[in-house]
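Minimal example, chain plus manganese (II) ion.
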Amino acid sequence: MIKVFGHKSPDTDATCSAIIWSWYLNEHSLRDAQAFVLGELNTETQFVLNYWNTDTPQLLEQLDANDEVIVVDTNNPQELPENINDVQLVQLIDHHKLVGGLQTAAPVDITMRPLACTATVLHDLMGESVVSALPREIAGLMLSCILSDTLEFRSPTTTPHDKDVAEKLAAQLEIDLHSYANEMFAAKSDISSFSDKGLVTLDSKKYGVGDKNFRVSVLETTTPQTVLARKDGILSAIAEVIAEENDVDEVLFFIIDILNEEATVLTYNDLTKKVIETSFGVTVEGDTEVLPGVVSRKKQILPALKL
Ligand code: MN
Ligand code: MN
């Protein structure tokens, strides 16, 4: 059995792309595959799985050297199980920048495309005859991945092709794309069940800038005020994370306002202030800074970061 999974801090694309691709392998390639996740799901992904009557994938406990695995939605070994280079990686499907570090003992099938989400890549790999007759839940999960990763086409990572595929799927499913996206974002904005530390690590990627290592955390929401109301707790949680993780110097925490298309970043000490000032050309006054138009970590935050 092939184990299919995405990155740690699983999001909708990582989780649902693993489900979609295992469905495809089981149905169309006669390979026995099963989807897994590497951590707790966010409330948007829980909503999506529930909406499309899909079971939550099992938590991946451990990988053995002879396990065959397929990785989706990342190519970064830091976001994967520790022993990823010691198992049988047979396929990698992704849409992120190539960071290096993955190694295999045998040749591996790699598809990486500059599209907004992994599910769009999967859609294209499956081919027209398969995608025109997808089961309802698989088409629904595919649409959800695109809406999630593009923030309903607001993110600059969106390509015309992602939009076309999403609109085609919504038509096929006979659902209203806009109201469904709003339901997803409302689910994502309900953070009441998360601890402050849970919010800091929910959607977080480690990223090196010069001689400093950051955790770049984003929280996409339609109600930024509910996140800012917990600022003190979040700052304590950030201090805790920095104390626990030897390889993290600072946490950059961005609250992404999906509807107003802006980010509010926490600038709680000299280093975070300096990084935000240098990277975004702003003068930081207090312990938060609003960055208009910034919604994408991949396209607007990480490439801008400098010391
Ligand atoms: Mn992802
Ligand atoms: Mn993705």
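The CA atoms of residues 187 and 250 lie 29 Å apart. The first strand starts at residue 2 and ends at 5.
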